[in-house]
Design goal:
Distance between the termini of chain A: 31 Å
Radius of gyration of chain A: 15 Å
Mean pLDDT of chain B: 88
Order of helices and strands of chain A: EEEEEEEEEEHH
Strand content of chain A: 35-45%
Largest sheet of chain B: 4 strands, mixed
Structural class of chain A: alpha+beta
Shape of chain B: elongated
Largest sheet of chain A: 5 strands, mixed
Strand order of the largest sheet of chain B: 2-1-3-4
Distance between the termini of chain B: 31 Å
Mean pLDDT of chain A: 87
Number of helices of chain A: 2
Low-confidence stretches of chain B: 202-206
Largest interface: A-B, 24 and 29 residues
Oligomer: heterodimer
Chain lengths: ~140, ~290
């Protein structure tokens, strides 16, 4: 049994293929999705999506954040952006981190939505650097 | 009767116009192909986003604390109209259609006693509406000189609209744009984006129940602005594809018209030339006879 995985960015459908298991960076921690998973809608943070086939990792993508919809037979990832892990650049991550840190200085800390948005960008930039460093 | 020289100049000028219009047609055709691809590749995201949203919205009760983007402000007094046009003309009735549709919408709303605010995207729409409704324009966006539309172009517009909604500056937001149907046809559409019309809301009983992580409200709070940006992005792409389609057919008929005009002028030119020759011959012959 497999799960039909789809990774979609606003600009195009990046990947659509059946996998044995996929690990997605959910808001509250990494989560493995196997076929037959209970239906869920998740918020994603910046991190890595890993595809498993026959017990092997067969694909890794960095996502900057987004949403995922899980049903027993499919897993749809709506990513703000998704980059194959090998193409993630550390420089880009650092540039974003600097931009997000500047934003953090300016943001109104009492405005919860704005603060959370900047925090999410900071986290995403950190994740990008981490991923690039490991690659 | 115009002189031969004047006719020759005229023919040459129409010929160069024809060269320009046929070049513009080629350019529009190649841009159209790219824009069409973009529209098609952006579709999966929008579809899945809409599906996710309707599933999630079916699970969330309509309470006063529900997000404003979903349920609106509860009023229907101030309308924000967002006409999307091109930044350049020479595309037939493309821009004028959006302008006319917006104007009709504004007039209808104002006749009902509503307040209208405008946020035009694209220079042509702004110019069209500025004369009569200049005071209602609250902000304008221009995407002139973009080679390729990106999702990042739609984000600031969406943020602005969300900000205005949070500040209570409007109750209902409507997009007016040309939807791309085919190369020769664009359909002017107005589409309400705030509050979000959720497909199939209320028939939640038949649906699978979704768990949400971290929780429904948090997911919805980030899904809704993203959905708004997606809708705007889709409309921008549709409008861009429509623009190139409209320009292509406008330039095609302009090229054809120039061809007809050249034919007519050449005929006229040849007739005049022959008339001149005949006249000269008559003069010579009658001169010789007189001697």
């Amino acid at each position: 049994m497999t799960t039909a995985l789809e990774i979609v960015s606003p600009e195009k459908l990046l990947l659509s293929r059946p996998v044995d298991m996929v690990v997605i960076p959910a808001f509250e921690g990494e989560m493995g999705v196997l076929p037959g998973h209970a239906p869920m809608i998740l918020l994603l943070r910046g991190g890595t999506i890993r595809l498993y086939e026959n017990g092997q990792v067969t694909g890794e993508f960095f996502v900057g954040g987004g949403f995922a919809e899980v049903t027993p037979d499919r897993c749809t990832v709506l990513a703000t952006e998704a980059i194959p892990l090998a193409e993630v650049s550390r420089g880009e991550g650092e540039r974003r981190l600097a931009a997000a840190e500047q934003e953090w200085e300016r943001v109104d800390k009492d405005d919860v939505t704005a603060r959370d948005a900047v925090l999410a960008r900071l986290q995403s930039a950190h994740a990008m650097i981490e991923v690039a460093g490991a690659a | 009767m115009p002189s031969l020289k004047a006719l020759r100049t005229r023919i040459n000028s129409v010929k160069s116009t024809q060269k320009i219009t046929s070049a513009m047609k080629m350019v529009a055709a190649s841009k159209l192909r790219r824009a069409q691809n973009q529209v098609e590749s952006a579709r999966p995201y929008a579809q899945r986003m809409a599906r996710m949203l309707s599933e999630l919205a079916a699970n969330v009760a309509v309470t006063p604390s529900a997000p404003r983007l979903l349920v609106g402000t509860g009023r229907d007094q101030v309308h924000l109209v967002v006409p999307i046009t091109a930044d350049r003309g020479l595309a037939g009735a493309f821009n004028a259609n959006v302008g006319r549709a917006s104007r009709a919408l504004i007039q209808r709303l104002e006749a009902e006693g509503k307040t209208v605010k405008l946020l035009p995207i694209g220079r042509k729409g702004r110019d069209y509406l500025r004369r009569d409704y200049g005071s209602r324009i609250v902000h304008e966006v221009s995407l002139a000189g973009r080679k390729r539309l990106e999702f990042a172009d739609a984000l600031p517009v969406a943020e602005r609209i969300v900000g205005m909604l949070e500040a209570g500056e409007f109750d209902v937001c409507t997009l007016v744009y040309n939807r791309f149907i085919s190369v020769i046809s664009q359909q002017t559409t107005s589409q309400q984006i705030v509050p979000v019309p959720v497909a199939g809301a209320g028939e939640g009983a038949a649906r699978a129940f979704y768990d949400a992580e971290p929780d429904e409200e948090t997911v919805l709070a980030s899904l809704l602005p993203q959905n708004l940006a997606t809708q705007i992005f889709t409309a921008l792409l549709e409008s861009a594809a429509g623009e190139h389609g409209a320009r292509m057919s406008a330039m095609d008929s302009a090229t054809r018209n120039a061809g007809d005009m050249i034919n007519r002028l050449s005929l006229n030119y040849n007739r005049t030339r022959q008339a001149n020759i005949t006249k000269e011959l008559i003069e010579i012959i009658s001169g010789a006879e007189a001697v």
